[in-house]
Design brief:
By secondary structure, the protein is an alpha/beta fold. The chain has nine helices and 15 strands. Helices cover 27% and strands 20% of the residues. The mean pLDDT is 93.
C-alpha cells in the first residue's frame, strides 16, 4: 500500500553456535512500524532468512508486513531472519550459501530440539540487546519453506510453550535425516541388538496422529507436482500431515495447488497466511488454547487423485 511507514532492517550479524560446535550462521533483525523500544514485541522466526531481505523480490516480506500492520491485520512485530550458514552475498548468491546443503539439512530436517536451543538460547539474547521480545509462545511464530518448513513445524512441536504459530510451505516431512544408528548395541545378556534409527521428518504425520494434541496453529501448503524422491513423497506427506492435524483437532489450514518444489504458491498466499496465523492476537494475553474451526470439523478428510497419468 502506498504511504505506509517502513520498518527497519539491521545489518548482517554472524553468530558462532555452541550447540552446533562452532558453526557460523548469518542473521538479521527487522522491526516493523509500531515496535516500541521499551515494549516487548511479538516475533516471527524465518528459516533461510537471507531469502527475505530484498523488499522488491520474492516474498516481499517487509512491505507485506508493513501493510498488514498498517491495516491492523497483524500486530507490530519483530522478524528474526536466520540463514543456515554464513552468507557472503544474500542477493546474488545461491539458495543455500556456500553450498552447505548438508549442514542446512542437519539444522532444519533433524527431529530434535537442537535448533530451538540455538535460536532461543544463543541468538535471541543477542536480539534482545536491540529490541525487547515477547517470551510467550502465544506471541511467537516460525515460517520456512522446504526443509525450513519442517524446521518451523518442528520448533513448535518440540517447544509449543515458546513457539505456537507456524507457516510451512512445501515442507520436507520426509526421511532426509532418517538413518540407522552407526553402532549396534548389545543387551544385558550379550546378544546384539539392531542399530537404533534416527527419527526423521517422515514420522510427523504419525506422531501428530498418535501423540496428544499440542497447542499449535498451523498453516500448511504444498503442490501436486512437488518432489517424489528416495527420501519420500512431499505431496503425500503434506496431505497425510494435514489429515493428521484435522483428526486431532488442530487449528490448521491446508492449501494444495499444482506447484512444483518452489515457493510461488506460498509467496502468493503469504499475506493471507500471516493474517490467518496471527488472527485475534491480543497483546494483553500470554496464552490461548487454539481450537479447530467448527467449519473445518464438518469438512471431509483430504483425498488423493492421480494427476499425471492418462485415463487408460
Amino acid at each position: 500500500q502506498p504511504g505506509v511507514p517502513k520498518g527497519k532492517l539491521s545489518d548482517m550479524m554472524v553468530h558462532e553456535s555452541a550447540v552446533y560446535h562452532g558453526w557460523k550462521v548469518s542473521w538479521w533483525i527487522y522491526a516493523s512500524p509500531g515496535v516500541q523500544p521499551d515494549t516487548p514485541a511479538p516475533v516471527m522466526i524465518w528459516a533461510d532468512g537471507h531469502r527475505f531481505l530484498q523488499r522488491d523480490m520474492r516474498a516481499r516480506l517487509f512491505p507485506l508486513t508493513e501493510s498488514l500492520v498498517h491495516s491492523k491485520k497483524i500486530p507490530p512485530m519483530v522478524h528474526v531472519l536466520i540463514s543456515p550458514t554464513f552468507v557472503e552475498d544474500p542477493v546474488n548468491g545461491p539458495y543455500t550459501p556456500n553450498g552447505h546443503t548438508d549442514m542446512r539439512s542437519l539444522l532444519y530436517d533433524t527431529v530434535n530440539d537442537d535448533y530451538n536451543h540455538m535460536v532461543f538460547g544463543e541468538i535471541f539474547p543477542k536480539a534482545e540487546t536491540m529490541y525487547k521480545l515477547r517470551q510467550d509462545g502465544y506471541s511467537t511464530g516460525a515460517c520456512g519453506q522446504s526443509s525450513g518448513g519442517i524446521c518451523a513445524f518442528n520448533q513448535a512441536w518440540q517447544y509449543p510453550e515458546r513457539v505456537s504459530r507456524v507457516i510451512s510451505r512445501i515442507g520436507t516431512f520426509t526421511s532426509i535425516q532418517w538413518r540407522w544408528g552407526q553402532e549396534a548395541d548389545t543387551d544385558r545378556y550379550g546378544f546384539q541388538k539392531p542399530p537404533q534409527a534416527l527419527q526423521g521428518g517422515e514420522m510427523f504425520p504419525f506422531l501428530v496422529r498418535r501423540r496428544e494434541r499440542k497447542n499449535m496453529r498451523v498453516w500448511l501448503s504444498d503442490g501436486a507436482y512437488d518432489h517424489e524422491l528416495p527420501f519420500g513423497s512431499w505431496p503425500l506427506q503434506n496431505i497425510q500431515l494435514a489429515n493428521s492435524l484435522k483428526m486431532q483437532g488442530y487449528d490448521f489450514r491446508f492449501r494444495f495447488g499444482n506447484n512444483q518444489h518452489n515457493t510461488e504458491l506460498g509467496e502468493a498466499e503469504l499475506p493471507e497466511a500471516m493474517a490467518w496465523v496471527w488472527r485475534g492476537y491480543d497483546p494483553a494475553k500470554t496464552e490461548e488454547v487454539y481450537e479447530q474451526d467448527p467449519v473445518e470439523k464438518e469438512r471431509p478428510l483430504f483425498r488423493v487423485g492421480i494427476v499425471n497419468r492418462s485415463a487408460r
